[in-house]
Amino acid sequence: MEKMPSINNIRGGVNPPSEPKSATAGIDKEKLKKACTEFEAVFTNQLLQFMRRTVPSSSPGILGSGKDVYQSLFDQELSKSMAKRGGLKIGEMVYKQMMRREEKKSLSAGTMNPLPPKAFGSGEK
What we know:
The chain is mostly helical and 125 residues long. It has helices spanning 7-10, 29-54, 67-84, 90-109. The protein has one domain (7-109). It is elongated.
């Protein structure tokens, strides 16, 4: 499976609070979508592995002792295919949540000090 991009690779750059930009200007949306899809594939693969452990094993059959290797490779490809097609919609949900988080960050970056200057150390009581 391909290496998942880190959050640093997904961000095009960090917007300083002094620069008001669009809500998602600091994120490469395509890289984020790819990372979310790959996350769903990894998650689905883990689910398949746990499900297979619950099934009693049968005789090795035609593949012999290499059955586990082939089964693992099959599960990995099945997971990738399911994630690309949006099978469980986990990647989509993660993507939407990340975009909401970034929008909140950029909106709150412009309102760093919501209280008037008199409220801080003006000496009035």
